[in-house]
Amino acid sequence: MQQISRMLTKLFRRARLEKPGQVDPRAAEFTLSLLVAMYDRSGTGYVRTRSAAAALISLSGDTLLAKYRAFFQFYAVPDGKEALITRSALRSLLTDLNQIPAVVGEGCTLSCVEIAIHDCFHGVLNAAIVEEKFLSWLRSEPAVLLWLPTCYRLSAAEMVSHQARCR
Questions:
Q1: What is the DSSP letter of 81?
Q2: Is the four-CA dihedral 131, 94, 46, 152 of positive or negative sign?
Q3: How far apart are CA 76 and CA 130, in angstroms?
Q4: Position 84 confidence tier, pLDDT thresholds 50, 70, 90
Q5: Count of helix runs (H) and strand runs (E) in the chain
Q6: Which positions fall inside the EF-hand domain (predicted)?
Q7: Residue 118 and residue 114: Cα distance in Å, rounded?
Q8: Quick one: which H or E segment has residue 143?
Q9: Most buried of the four, 11, 39, 106, 135, by CB within 10 Å?
Q10: Is the dihedral of CA 37, 38, 43, 49 positive or negative?
């Protein structure tokens, strides 16, 4: 928890320098509280760094593709020259990501995660998939993660302005 707290403090300090007046001075504290609510419900004082990274990536203002690639980087397993996502790694990613809607009472069941894993690996004979297969599956907007592109679109729509006037 201390490591994540230090990282968040640095992150938001840098953001305040880049965008003065736009970042709440307590942003690191609030973000840590959110991460604790999502990933330390039993009060152990421990949050996995990878889980915290998945949450920060998903809540970032980056593009969906950039988020998907970052998920792959954090959860993939090296296999010779390339990295692969195993069923186990995908289960871990989906479980971590589903803590985000769960914190507001919108999480899905474990069976949703298993159905998504089966869907992602449909027709795959190997024990793991390459990045392109993973990205292709995410672009198909699986139901278990439908909240992610929806939130992205809502965020992107906030920046749209039209020169039309309504009567």
A1: T
A2: positive
A3: 9
A4: very high
A5: 9, 3
A6: 65-154
A7: 6
A8: none
A9: 39
A10: negative
